[in-house]
Specification:
alpha+beta; 5-stranded antiparallel beta sheet; 4-stranded antiparallel beta sheet; 11 strands; flat; Cell cycle control protein
Length: 351
């Protein structure tokens, strides 16, 4: 029988010490700096922080308010098309509508066009995970092993390209802008490229390697809700087709909130629009394809400028103003308490 006490120290032998080494680091004898908090230093920190936050907040709010923006809800104005799109059997039928509006003042500078959605929840866990990053990199992967289900393959085994719920629900309305000048109608030139991040275009999204895109996607099929395959997203520009299409890349960057906007186009500053959009009458001509009635959603088109702090979003400026106000008020409260205690201390010393 094995002697289990053979590993125990014998009587008289010194037991190994469990104390840390006698070093400055392990014995916590390293030199340290401990601030001496005085009333002057504390109040200075609060008032300086408050002044800084208030200054930055005012600048951000003024900057956000200087953004020119016009937002038009076309959900009800295209009600006939909306009813047509609620029936999935009409997916191949075209439907167009027009929305007129007036710019009372010029919108100078770079003008950006966004589409906005309300009550569309992209932050559901299964929705966010329903994609194949390996497929979007142009790799030959087994889609059935991805998290794209149920939008991975058709019943006959044909894989979808691209797969997943995010790609399948891609926003596919087509929006054109026209300027009504006197008796003529001028189409506003819009840029459809350069709207995505460089890292998306060159790192996260790539087309399969082949001599042309149609052969690269041979053996695949479009997602169920798409009207055309991925290699026909932009037939005019090979560099904006397939997985590297800007509209597709922008849509694949999901939103954290149910109400959001995505960049759609930029106004090309040529001819009548070198300074931006002149005042006058305009028309949005919309090819209505994206249904929103079933989930009680709304659709918007937004024209906006940008400034050094971004678009019209006063949240950051308001946050700085609230923080600066709180720091300044705290400084005054501490000052009042200090003066009250000092007065009481002086009174007792005189007694």
């Amino acid at each position: 029988m094995e002697n289990k006490t053979s590993f125990l120290p014998r009587e008289g032998e010194a037991q190994p010490s469990r104390c840390p080494d006698n070093s400055a680091f392990k014995q916590q004898r390293l030199p340290a700096w401990k601030p001496q908090l005085t009333i002057a230093s504390v109040l200075s920190c609060f008032f300086l922080t408050g002044a800084f936050c208030l200054t930055v907040g005012v600048c951000l709010v003024l900057s956000a308010n200087s953004v020119r923006e016009i937002q038009i809800d076309y959900s009800d104005k295209c009600s006939d098309c909306s009813k047509l799109r609620e029936n999935s059997s009409n997916w191949n039928k075209e439907c167009h509508c027009s929305v007129n509006f007036t710019l009372k003042e010029d919108i100078l500078g770079d003008v950006f066009m966004y589409y906005g959605l309300e009550n569309f929840y992209q932050n559901h866990r299964r929705y966010v995970m329903s994609r194949s990053d390996a497929q979007l990199l142009g790799r030959n992967v087994n889609i059935q092993r991805s998290k794209c289900a149920p939008f991975s393959t058709y019943r006959n085994g044909t894989p979808m390209a691209p797969c997943g719920a995010i790609a399948n629900s891609m926003f596919n309305d087509t929006i054109d802008l026209f300027y009504n000048r006197n008796s003529s109608v001028i189409q506003v030139p819009l840029l459809k490229t350069g709207n995505s991040w460089w890292t998306d275009k060159n790192v996260k999204f790539r087309n399969p390697e082949s001599y042309n895109l149609s052969s690269a996607f041979a053996g695949t099929a479009r997602p169920p809700y798409w009207q055309k395959p991925v290699y026909l997203l932009d037939e005019e520009d090979e560099r904006n087709n397939g997985y590297v299409n800007d509209d597709f890349i922008v849509w694949m960057r999901v939103s954290a909130f149910a109400t959001f906007r995505n960049l759609y186009r930029r106004v090309r500053r040529v001819r009548h629009f070198t300074q931006g959009l002149p005042a006058g009458n305009y028309t949005f001509r919309i090819a209505y394809n994206f249904p929103v009635t079933r989930f009680k959603g709304r659709k918007h088109v937004i024209l906006s400028t940008v400034v050094w702090s971004g678009g019209r979003n006063p949240f950051l400026g308001i946050a700085y103003l609230v923080s600066g106000t709180a720091a300044t008020l705290t400084g005054f409260v501490i000052t009042g308490i200090h003066l009250k205690l000092r007065k009481k201390k002086t009174y007792f010393q005189k007694q």
